[in-house]
Amino acid sequence: MSLLTEDQIAELACIASNQSTSKDLYQEFCEWNEKQFFGIEVEPNWENAPVGAITAVFSMRWYDENDNLLLSDIFEEFSKPVTPHHHAEMIMKYAEVAQMRSDPWVEFEWGKNNAHWCSCDKWINFNTDNCYRHIGETK
After folding, report:
1. C-alpha Rg value of the chain to the nearest Å
2. Any domain includes 30
3. In tens digits, what is the pLDDT along the chain, a chain of 139 residues?
4. Do 102 and 127 have their domain in common?
5. Residue 139 falls inside a structural domain
6. Are residues 6 and 33 in the same domain?
7. Strand partners for 60
């Protein structure tokens, strides 16, 4: 038997605290338990996924003694989490500045490894190899 996840404990606590008089707590827990999947939490490791994979499906197949497939059920389908751009927050700040001025790059500097900062003299392409910082208006 495995331990309950934090989400499962929270769900059970919610059932217990919102207990209605129409059902007894035992019945509510039994119904909850039937909806659980083997008592384990499944989460794909996207770092080991093949290049280009965007969906993972956890399924179970049932076979008879002759290895004939009797039934295949999909229990859970996962979508690959979206990974934000390395400079997403800085890009949002750049867009905010661009709403106020036509030359937003003058309020930013770029550098390598947060060392030796240089002024930006044109629009910024937010290369993932560079670091960027907002310095504010200097003129």
Report:
1. 26
2. yes
3. 466 777 777 888 887 777 655 567 777 777 777 766 555 667 788 889 999 999 998 888 889 999 999 998 877 788 888 888 889 999 999 999 999 999 999 999 999 887 789 999 999 999 988 999 999 876 5
4. yes
5. no
6. yes
7. 73
| Domain count within the chain | 3
Range list of H helices, 36-87: none
Q: To the nearest 10°, the Cα dihedral for 81, 86, 90, 94?
A: -90
CA distance 4 to 39: 7
Structure tokens at 36: 């659980």
Q: Which two tokens stand for residue 118?
A: 């240089």
Long-range contacts of 108-117 (CB under 8 A, 24+ apart): 108/132, 108/133, 108/134, 108/135, 109/133, 109/135
Q: In this structure, are 98 and 129 located in the same domain? A: yes
The residues, any chain, with a CB within 8 Å of residue 100's CB and separated by 6 or more, are: none
Distance set, CA 103 to CA 6, 8, 98, 125 (Å): 49, 52, 7, 14
If asked whether residues 110 and 130 sit together in one domain, one would say: yes
Note down the domain range covering 29: 1-40
Instruction: Report yes or no on 123 lying in a domain.
Output: yes
Q: Are 20 and 33 in a shared domain?
A: yes
Provide the pLDDT for residue 135. Answer: 93
Please tell me the predicted confidence (pLDDT) of residue 7.
79
